[in-house]
Write a sequence for this structure.
């Protein structure tokens, strides 16, 4: 019997560790580029905008307590936590992409369409 090429297609898959590694690597590269562009172009980055919004919605008593405890380290710690959170979210997106991208109805002759999704 002659077997059609469409019958033998295998969907791309990776282990959960590889998915975390892919997402982690991509988010670290994105974060480094974003920070470099922030200093090169002298503009605010996404974590800085998020920090501004987060401090605006934080109750005054909580903000005062944190500021009294951390003093001048409060802003750098918040920025570092937001960058770390961004890397963690990138890892989770990597896991979700590997797990669910094969189930999306895209034509496999143009695999870059899947990459645009992310």
């Amino acid at each position: 019997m002659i077997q059609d090429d469409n019958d033998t297609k295998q969907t791309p898959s990776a282990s959960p560790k590889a998915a975390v590694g892919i997402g982690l690597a991509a988010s670290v590269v994105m974060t480094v580029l974003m920070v470099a562009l922030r200093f090169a172009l002298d503009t605010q980055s996404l974590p800085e905008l998020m920090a501004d919004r987060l401090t605006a919605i934080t109750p005054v008593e909580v903000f005062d307590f944190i500021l009294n405890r951390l003093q001048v380290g409060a802003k750098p710690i918040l920025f570092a936590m937001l960058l770390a959170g961004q890397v963690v979210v990138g890892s989770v997106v990597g896991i979700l992409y590997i797990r669910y991208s094969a189930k999306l109805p895209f034509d496999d002759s143009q695999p870059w369409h899947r990459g645009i999704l992310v």
